Amino acid sequence: MKYFFTVILALFLVTGFVFATGTKEGVKTLVYGTTEKVTDMDPASAYDFHTWEIFQNIYQGLLSYPPGKTNIVPGLAESYSANAKGDQFTFKLRKGVKFTDGTPFNAQAVKWTIDRVIALKGDPSWLVTDFVKSVDVVDDYTVRFNLKGPIAYFPALAATVPYFPENPNVYPKDKIVRNPSELKGGALVGLGPYKVVSFKRDEEVVLEANPDYYGEKPKIDRIVIRYFADATTMRLALEKGEIDLAYKTLNPSDIADLSKNSKFTTYKLSGPYIRYVCFETSESVFKNKILRQAFGALINRPEIMKKVFLNQNEPLYSMVPKGMIYHTDDFKNTLGDGNIALADKLLKEAGYSKEKPLTFDLWYTPSHYGDTEVDMAEVLKAQLEKSSMMKVTLKSAEWATYKQQWKAKQMAVYLLGWYPDYIDPDNYTAAFAGTSGSKGMGINFSDPKWDALFTKEQTNTDPAVRKAVFEKIQKMWTDEAPTVPIFQGNLYVFTRKDVGGVEIGPTLIFNYNALYFKK
Amino acid sequence: MKNLLRYIITRILLTIPMIFILLTLVFVILRIMPGDPVSAMLGAHAPEEVIEQKKEELGLNKPIIIQYINYMNKLLHFDLGESMIFKQKVIVPIREKLPATIELTFFGMFFTLLFGIFPGAYAASRRRKGRDFAIRIYANVVYCIPVYWMGLMLQLILGIWLGWFPIAGRVNARILVSTFERTGFYTLDTLLAGNLYAFGDVMLHLFLPSLTLGIVLSGIFVRLTRANMLDVLKSEYILSARARGIPERKIVYKHALKNAFIPVLTMLGLQFALLLAGAILTEMTFSWPGIGRLLMERIYLRDYPTIQGVIVVFALFVSIVSLIVDILYAMVDPRVKY
After folding, report:
1. Interface predicted TM-score (ipTM) of this complex, two decimals
2. Prediction pTM value
3. Does residue A401 belong to the interface with chain B, where contact is any CB pair within 8 Å?
4. Which of A34, A88, A419, B17 has its CB surrounded by the most CB atoms within 10 Å?
């Protein structure tokens, strides 16, 4: 029996080492590692960062962003125009573009897609239904969007995933597609620089260059997206050379180590990802805005950045992130950082004292925001309790529970994060303090004055008017504080030295066709 | 033989209530846990009517007892149901991921026996000597070590520092799986496809996860084998073998170990459940795409039918293995009568 085991072990190692040194395929393949997950393979339903990223590479929008930039350029539409009132947008489509199965792309496909998004009511459908009344096919290559009212930032909306034209011959009209196997033909058929050739959920997605793509041809033949169950293994896989690129989400200590490693290129992206505290403002103890202000005054952002994120992120003093138009630093100038004196004054004013402190549960969810979340919650608790008038209990719940709880108003104060749907300050403000958006986030803040301001900035195309409105909103935010900003997240991409072309701008759109091997 | 057949049938019949009780427990626990698939699936912007519509579509607005009866009814018709999140038959991801877990546990068991039985036998033959103490310390230490920590250490030492073995996944991402995949058992598939390069790569990928699992679970087998060997080495037939001048090595590994192995074999069946539990953590550490990882991912999503389906498969797996072990036991030990 001993010999049996010895023989098996020897076989195990010998076959591994001998055969694995054989020949390899001659296809230029880049392996991209991530801890993200793919959700529904349907632009009408998916509403997460990573799935959108894949769609941005296998489908195309009528309008798009050049790699790493924020200016909108023509995509599947060669040009567009708006009527004088700003409630009708007409797009002239490219001719001769085909889906990867050979189906011609035309105006009917655009209308079919938008009608489908509206009918299916998927999670991102509000990006269409809140703004678009109907779509008309003017001719085969002209399509008109009739809006519910003038929308200043409609081109930015038209560049989002729910607007990406689908192939009517492949997607079912009345059903959301979760897996490519549910599509007619069993495969994703797009218009982008890459096409999906293999899809294994939570394991890997294999993309290959689309030879019929109308734009800049991809320089890498095949991109394999590998899904890792944890960040540490992904970091090790990068060090081992099993992956060429690691993006979202490494631990701060791994980021610090890899940044110092000369074998890798580090890309630091100051993206529009923000983290903030939400308050339930209709029924909880935090319906009193003085308490929200006191909470905001006690947060010491630089300390959180240093202790939890090893200074890899930036403190944020407005819900509108730095680098975006109309950003101001109002929270810094009014409530400040770790302002215990102001917090004590406000708490006293609200009737609290050392003997009768404000006690509440601060909620966080480690299953959605990673390993650092518990650390951030603990540092926050320590900062809040620097005021003798606050007693904080930390509570956590998994993401599924968390969402259910904020909808049921079971959390008075909780931590959340935001990736934008479209690049405009409106998406960072109306989504939290507008009556409808605020309800969805569990904040339940509602004020007609605020709603009027949002309507004004949404319907006005004059930059000066919009600037004035957003500056006013940001100032008002420090007074009402329906949410309190904490930090703006930097994202890190690590690649092997021979990989180039990582161009991810503030839109966070990652165009794989810009990637290349240096040798 | 007739008795053995009766025993097998009885065991199979006993598996049914076991799975029934297990599933009932899992069903109830999942429903009383906070969070539900609809909350996990839909984002913050989902309108109330969509949430309600989704609940109705998934049958989550029905009383729990009705949901339970419906589920059991489907199960009786060998239908594990449909994933609430990804709208595909539960059996599809299980069928896709199960071969990965079977390969991992098979090779994990191999290392468990390799690092459990021989050191155990050797320790018994060197009782109360330095090497015996060293092996006993090894057994205690590895028994206490968490699987993920052991996995991380092996990844660092054998994967990164020495660079000998890959540390994640089942096969190099640069090898297109579709070129060889047939059964899902990559060791077999690569051989069937005649792709020896891929076969070698698959073997190398299997090494670290199965070694991790094997080492962690070997502790209990070291102790068990050692204890049994100590009893066997005191037997009269061992004494007479020694008296006849048979070399000690032959006595220990050929004569004594064979007998000491019988109780170990029984334990092997019982330990299989532990092996599967260990496989869940190993799969997470090595990003191994098996059903353990599937279970973890779907727990986060509250995908009730998939979680229940994986539990059924785990339970069946453990029952089948322990049944096989019992049958082997009867074959190996002629004293056992059913």
Report:
1. 0.83
2. 0.84
3. yes
4. A34
